[in-house]
């Protein structure tokens, strides 16, 4: 879709591939800070008030990417209210909806959508099955879905119908649900293991809040430690880790933090990874 001149508010830190998609459509992106409760809605409102180009806001409220925080109820209601008052489209990326370990499942923002508010809810099978399975889904008002389908058709006439049918069968016969349940159990255990290892080995250098779900831990470094330097030294030992600068719109003052994924590593691999990570720590 081409939206020259439009402005989309995005979380900062956030998901760079989403920014690329907005830019590829001709829009500009503007960063809104994220805190322990998700995107700062007061800052968003300020932008909406002062910038008439603002058309939408892209959020990951279930587990904010990359910081993993869950947006609380009050913040969600404020976000819906600001979107309604300023006519903003909310793009809700619920990429890891299946992975909630603690407490009750969280309803998407889109579940509260009413007809006076446009929410584009998008999900992916990347985290549930495999990133190579290029299938996702969207729930949105009909006029937006029609536009999305038209653009998609122009790019790639009909998508991958055999794959869609195969997955529909697996959804209907309960296979996907069983798989999700099992994956949730496995990832829950991996989260707990990574949290324990980080607590035992790195509590003098870094802090984290245990994420209530998802696929990664956001590890914040203590003052004086550089995540980039640490990442370079880990790479030399064969470990690839993502420092905060990867997730920031501006490189001047990136978060001194890491998004450490636990889901793809078994117990042995996780233990080894944290071993290497600890060894790679630069002297502050
Ligand atoms: C924030 C976020 N959204 C969406 C996705 C899924 O993207 P895709 O469905 O294109 O694989 C990912 C995967 O890494 C992600 O991290």
List the helices and strands and how they pair.
Elements: E1 7-12, H1 16-24, E2 28-35, E3 38-39, H2 41-50, E4 54-59, H3 73-86, E5 89-93, E6 119-124, E7 136-139, H4 142-155, H5 161-172, H6 175-202, E8 206-207, E9 216-221, H7 227-236, E10 242-243, E11 257-261, H8 267-279
Parallel strand pairs: 1-2, 1-4, 4-5, 5-6
Antiparallel strand pairs: 2-3, 6-7, 8-9, 9-11, 10-11
Helix pairs in contact: 2-3, 6-8
The structure holds pyridoxal-5'-phosphate.
Residues 15, 60, 65, 93, 95, 124, 126, 131, 136 line the site of pyridoxal-5'-phosphate.
Summarize the model shown:
This protein has 284 residues and is α/β, with parallel strands linked by helices. It is built from eight helices and eleven strands. A seven-stranded mixed beta sheet has the order 3-2-1-4-5-6-7, with helices on both faces. A four-stranded antiparallel beta sheet has the order 8-9-11-10, with helices on one face.
**What shape does the CA trace take?**
globular
Order of helices and strands: EHEEHEHEEEHHHEEHEEH
Low-confidence stretches: none
Highest CATH level, the class of the largest domain: Alpha Beta
Largest sheet: 7 strands, mixed
Number of helices: 8
CATH-level-4 superfamily name of the largest domain: Type I PLP-dependent aspartate aminotransferase-like (Major domain)
Q: What structural category characterises the helix and strand content?
A: alpha/beta
Bound molecules: pyridoxal-5'-phosphate
CATH structural architecture of the largest domain: 3-Layer(aba) Sandwich
Main-sheet strand order equals 3-2-1-4-5-6-7
Beta content: 15-25%
* Average of the residue pLDDT scores: 95
Domain tally:
2
Helix content percent band: 25-40%
